[in-house]
Amino acid sequence: MGEVLCISVACGACCGGTGRAISASCPGTPSVSEENHTPELTDFSDVPCPVRALPPQWYHTVQVRRIRSLRARSNSDPLQGKNLGQGLQWQRKGLPFGNASSYLNLEKLGEGSYATVYKGISRINGQLVALKVISMKAEEGVPFTAIREASLLKGLKHANVVLLHDIIQTKETLTFVFEYVHTDLSQYMAQHPGGLLPYNVRLFMFQLLRGLAYIHHQHILHRDLKPQNLLISYLGELKLADFGLARAKSIPSQTYSSEVVTLWYRPPDVLLGATDYSADLDIWGAGCIFIEMLQGYPAFSGVTDVFEQLEKIWSVIGTPTEDSWPGVSLLPHYKTEWLTLYESQPFGSIWDRLARVMGAENLAQKMLKGCPRERISAEDALLHKFFSTLPCQIHQLTDVRSIFTVPGLSLKPEMRDLFFSHQKGSHHKPW
């Protein structure tokens, strides 16, 4: 399918969701042919961390300058461990951060209502990057979603959260420079229809909950969890992305909009108009994604409006009452004439693959509770028996360490990959 942008963007907010690359160039950026500089590696003499012993392509743009603790090798290595001696003619010594000339556009990846995204490469250290270019209209200035995204991401440093390298501002544009990640979960599932390998689902789900536990500890709600916003590296690293709708929840009584989260992944309390939600909002979306990874199709899909979405949810978890969900009748959009009475169903009878994987049905039930206060937290979910087969070291990693630094842990080939590899007699490729 080709390579995919490292940032998934909400529908209508940025890219149209196709993920297809279109060749494009960036005005004002020097082309490769304009550089007659002798190939040389970047000078890291002024970097505040000991990097001389390691190849510079292992480091993220901002990490090199701002993070003293070393992180596992970046999945944005453009050569993926191959000889760096080729293709460095475009690198320049001493190029500054925050400057458009420090990055080259390689191709256009998508365009939306307020931003265009390009695949690019850093001329500072040779890393592949994703350039999210936001046009600033004179009468409107910088879109508030961009300000929100930048302010939140600047403070987030975690292996399961997309890394913001740099911010470039000109009179006409604001550009976010992100780490480049190979694909996203939506594309990965599309390439492996029928449900993913349970072992891989366990790895993806652990990383999703790990990222959520981190941002929730920072009092940040993502508010737009969906497969398109979960990036997957060539190693299998999962990263939360697109924080355009994210909010910092620092005051418990603060209220927010109920128009958040793509409809299929929106919890029933928000569908009913709740605006005092907390981290439980993201847990519902993560639960829906969990089922989708195992089953191969969305848990609650094919809907056109809020009423139909609620009907699909009630048919599985049961129609709520004041006894089962205290306060539900007080929510703004609660209407008794809308409610068809349903009894709750065993998740395993609705989604059969849940019943066949140890602990999967129980974890899904704990995440997809109608009453938001009853949903399991991301931190507690990481300790669920569903993950008991993973090495214990996985719980002892520092924030910036990938789970794939644990010895013996790696993504396994999906069944489709094994089949085509056998048919063609070729070596396996993850996707």
From TrEMBL:
Name of one Pfam family that matches:
Pkinase
* Biological processes per GO annotation: Wnt signaling pathway
UniProt KW keywords = ATP-binding, Kinase, Nucleotide-binding, Serine/threonine-protein kinase, Transferase, Wnt signaling pathway
User: For this protein, what is any one GO molecular function term?
Assistant: cyclin-dependent protein serine/threonine kinase activity
Classification via Gene3D superfamilies: Phosphorylase Kinase, domain 1, Transferase(Phosphotransferase) domain 1
- Residue numbers binding ATP: K132
* GO annotations of cellular component type: cytosol; nucleus
Enzyme class, one word?
transferase
Residue ranges of domain Protein kinase in the record: 103-387
The reply on keyword ATP-binding is yes
Q: Which transformation does this protein catalyse, written as a reaction?
A: L-seryl-[protein] + ATP = O-phospho-L-seryl-[protein] + ADP + H(+); L-threonyl-[protein] + ATP = O-phospho-L-threonyl-[protein] + ADP + H(+)
Q: What SUPFAM superfamilies does the record point to?
A: Protein kinase-like (PK-like) (SSF56112)
Its EC number(s) = 2.7.11.22
Q: PANTHER family under this entry?
A: CELL DIVISION PROTEIN KINASE, CYCLIN-DEPENDENT KINASE 15
What the record says about family reads: Belongs to the protein kinase superfamily. CMGC Ser/Thr protein kinase family. CDC2/CDKX subfamily.
Q: What does this protein do?
A: Serine/threonine-protein kinase involved in the control of the eukaryotic cell cycle, whose activity is controlled by an associated cyclin. Acts as a cell-cycle regulator of Wnt signaling pathway during G2/M phase by mediating the phosphorylation of lrp6, leading to the activation of the Wnt signaling pathway.
Complexes and interactors: Interacts with ccny; ccny mediates its recruitment to the plasma membrane and promotes phosphorylation of lrp6.
Name of protein? Cyclin-dependent kinase 14
Q: Which gene encodes it?
A: CDK15
